[in-house]
Amino acid sequence: MNQRTLTAAAIQLGPIPLSAPRNEVLDRLVALLHTAADAGATFVVYPELALTSFFPHWRIDDRNELLQFYETDFPHGSVAPIMRAAAQRAVTFEIGYAEVTPEGQLFNTASLVDGTGELARYRKVHLPGFADEQPEAQHQLLEKGYFGVGNLGFPVTEVQRARVGMAICNDRRWPETYRLLALQGAEIACIGYNTPVATPHLPEIDRLTHFQNHLSMQAGAYQNSMWVIGAAKAGVEEGVDQIGGSAIIAPSGEIVAQAHSVEDEVVVAEIDLDMCTRYRAEVFNFLHHRRPELYGPISAAMDPAWPYPMAR
Ligand code: ING
Question: Active-site residue 169, yes or no?
Answer without folding.
Answer: yes
